Amino acid sequence: MVCVALIAALAAGLGYLGWLIQSPNQALTEFPNRLIELRDLEAKWDTEILSLQLGIAPNYDQVTRAGHDLKAKLDEMETIAGSNQSLAPLQPAIQSYRQALEQKAKLAEQIKASYAMLRNAATILPSSISDSLRFPESLQPMPGLNERPSDLMTENISAMMSFTISPSPILQNAVQDRIARIRSLGAQMSPGLANVLSRFRSQIEVVTRERLQGNKLMLALTAIQTGAAADKIQSDLTSLEQSEVESKRSLRDVGLVLGALLVISIVALVSLLSRRFAELYKDNRVLKQVNENVEEQLMQSSKLSALGQMVAGITHEINTPLAYVKAVFELIKERMTPVYQNSVAADQDEEAEEARREELQILLDDGLHGLEEISTLIRTMKNFSRIDKGQIESFSIEEGIESALLIARPQLKYVADVKCEFDSVPEIMGSASQLRQVLLNLIVNAGQAMKVMDRRGVLTMRTRLTSSDTVQIDVCDNGPGIPEDIVGKVFDPFFTTKPVGEGTGMGLSICYRIIENHGGTIAVSSKPGKGTIFTITLPRKGERGPTGDDVPRPNDGIPAVAA
Length: 563
Known about the structure:
With about 575 residues, this protein is an alpha+beta fold. It has two domains: about 1-225, no CATH class; about 390-563, Heat Shock Protein 90. It contains 13 helices and seven strands. Strands 2-4-5-7-6 form a five-stranded mixed sheet. A two-stranded antiparallel ribbon has the order 1-3. Strand 6 (about 520-525) and strand 7 (about 530-540) form a beta hairpin. The relative contact order is 0.06. The model is unreliable at about 545-563 (pLDDT under 50).
């Protein structure tokens, strides 16, 4: 039991380790793909922000949408990392990456606001130029300057565009110089044109200022190390993957150890079972021998029990011919004495002597007949009570029936008439003593059943050949029969309907086993009030029985319960 429990535990542990090794960490497998998607979204976001600086973005929707997608993807990854214990070490790097993205998002919002102001100011400049053209003086050279206000506005527009494209200090100074020149013209212009130039100058200053502010914000945005934070997540993820590989390698090593222990345990269990089976085989042989001995004792006890029930009748059967023989020989003695006394007489009557001789011959024949009956009865009882090992020999069923009827005659002659209907069946191979025991047991049981009736019964012994190469024996009586509720139990060990002390309940059980060991069958058919028929079928001589042997094996033992 300890070995079995250990093997079960090792097998369960090995199976669990195999499951751990084979089952992949889904979160650890999917997380790198999510990180790649996140970095792609960040690159797209950076591109949209850069398009603001270059002035090629028609609006800010793409920048906003890219930022929202990036934030949603980061929230999703953070949720995955928080719900999976194996990804818990990534939380600090993810938080650092989130902080960097939040700073970047704030700067992006400021950049959007700055460039929104720049775009608004730039869109007003054309209207300022068109307003200035309504004044003729804008197209005339200014006194002392030898240049027109419209040309000066055009130069401001060109300088501003150059500065917007490349906000260098030189271009910034050029823009500032032209703004100063426009400011100086204000005192020489009409109030209407001066107001237009003032608005123009203010928009140029807004564009210049916001372009500088946007450039500073863009530099600050690019200085945020989101890439380093993402690389830290990638590095930690690589470490986790390596740790997962090392863990599975360790689990594999533990699995190998458990497998080796499992093999050792199985070998130990097999060795232990082999020793146990060897001991059980040895004990089984001893028990089989004991069982055979008990079987022989039970069969002999059954024989002696049957003989004991017939002692009184057999004694009467022996005394009757013995008394007859005694009387015959006493008469012989009486007849012979005068003969010898008068043998010397010369005048002996020869005719009388011849009569005495014939009478003497008859008496001697009668005496020898009585002695032969006694000898036959004693020989039959001797054969029946003989202890043997169930030796296989040729056996005549009809002679066995006649010998059994001879032994049971004292119990039958007062209760039933015997009818024999023999079909001249051939001899069979079997144990003669065991088969005689079966026949005698069935005959005695039939006699005891008919003894309780108020009429004389009939016992019919019938033999016949069947079409299935078997010999059939019927033991029929017209007694009271067997009740239907117990007819199926008559072959059970220790089952009996006789009073206590008059039956052991083993007779029919032993008969069943003897017939079964001979490769045959025994069955009972009974109708209450009409009688009972026991039918025995045995294989013919030389036929192969159910066991496949050429001859039956009658001494294979009796049921353990019989012992």
